[in-house]
Amino acid sequence: MPSETMPIQPAPTGQGRTLHRRLGLWSASLAGIGVILGAGIYALVGPAAGQAGGAIWLSFLVAALIASLTGYSYARFVAIVPKNSPEFQYASVAFGPTVGFAAGWVMVWSDLIAVAAVSIGFAGYLAHLLPVPVVVGAVLLVALLSLIAYLGIGESVGLVVLFTLVEVAGLLFIIAVGLPYWGDVDYLEMPRGIGGVWTATALIFFAYLGFDEFGNLAEETREPERTLPRALLIAMVVSTLIYIAVAFSAVSAVGWEALSSSSAPLAQVAGTVLGPRADMALTLIALAATANTVLLLMVAASRSLYGMASAGAMPGWLARVGRRRTPWMAIGITSLIAMAITFVGSIERVAQMTNASVLLSFAVVNLALFWWTARRDEPWTPKRVLLGALPPLAATATCLWLLVYTGTEAILLSVGLGALGLLIGLRLRKPQGGPS
Known about the structure:
Blueprint: H1 25-36, H2 39-52, H3 56-80, H4 86-95, H5 97-129, H6 134-151, H7 153-178, H8 193-204, H9 224-260, H10 265-274, H11 276-310, H12 328-341, H13 347-374, H14 382-404, H15 408-432
Helix pairs in contact: 1-7, 1-9, 1-11, 2-8, 2-9, 3-8, 3-9, 3-13, 3-14, 4-5, 4-13, 5-6, 5-11, 5-12, 5-13, 5-15, 6-7, 6-11, 6-12, 7-9, 7-10, 7-11, 9-10, 10-11, 11-12, 13-14, 13-15
C-alpha cells in the first residue's frame, strides 16, 4: 500500500506547543480568495493584455481551468494528508521523502520569490504616492507583515479578511465603471495569435496562485478534510468570475493597447473613466491588495518550512512554535530571505520565474495523486479511472504545457531548484536514516 512509503512523522519542537485550529469554512474561503485576488490582477493584467489583446478574458479562463485541475489533486490529497507543507507531504506519500523534499523545496522558493515580486509591486504603487525608494518600501513591508504573521494565524487572517474586502471592492468598482462599455471592442482580437493567448495564460497563472496554499492551513483549520476542499472550490469559482468580469471591463473601457502600456493598468481604467481621484483610490486599493498577497504568501512559506521541519526533512529549529502559537523561527527565516530577493528583478520577470517553479511542483503533485491511486489494491472501475486517474494526468499535461510558455530563464531556474532539492534530499537522508 502507498501509505507504507510515507515518511512523515512529527518531529518534536522541544516546547510541546502545537498550532491553533481557529479557521472555519468562511475564514478559510476568504483567506483563499484573498491570496488569489491579489497582485496578479492588479499588476499583470497590463502585460498580459499586450500578449492576448482583447482575448485576455480567454487567458483568465484557461488559467482557471488549469489551476482547477491541479486544485482537484490538492483537494483529494488534503483529505489523505491533512498536514502543512502540502507539496512535501503529498509527493512523499507517493514517491518517498527525497522527491517529497524536492517538491517542497521548489514550492518554498517559489513562495519566497513571489513574496519579493509582490513586495516590489507594492513598493512601486507606494512610490507613486510618496518619495520612498522601491527597495526600501518592499523591505519595510516584509518586516511589518512578518510581525503580523508572528502575532498569530487569527490576527493574520483577520487582516487578510479586511484587505480582501478592500481589494474585492476595488475589482467590483472596475467592473462597474467598465460595464457601460461592454460590447465596444473585439473580445477575440489576438495581436499575437493563439500563441499570445498561451503566453498571457502563463503570465496570468500567477494571479491564481493561492489555491495550493490551502494545504498550509491544514493544521490551523477545524475539520480540514471536510473544510479545505469546500473552501478551495468557493475561492476558485468566486475568483474566476471576478477576474473574467474585470478583464471585460478593463479592455472595454480603455482598449488592450492602452492597458498594456500602463504600469498601473487598473488605476488607469478608473482614471480614464472617472478622473484623477479615482486613479488615486485604485492606487490605495492596489496597495492593500499587494500587501494582502505578501502576508498570505509569507504565512504559507513559513508553514511549509515548519511542516518539513516537523517531519524531520529540515533542521528541527524551524519547527519551533513560540508563545503566540506560530512557527516564529520559520517566519523569521522566510522574512530575511524574501527581503534579500527584493533587491533584484521586476514583477513581470519574477512572476514568470515563480510560475515556472510552481508549475513544476504542481506537476509532481499531480503525478503523485495518479501514482498513489494506481498503487492502491483496488479494481480499476470506471469511477476509479474517472476520479483518480484522468484528472491528475490531465493536470500534469496542462502544467507541463504551460511551463513551456514561461520562458527559458524561468524554466532553467525551476529545473535547477528541483535538481538542487533532489541532491539535498538525498544528502539529508543518508546520515539520518529516517526522520529525527
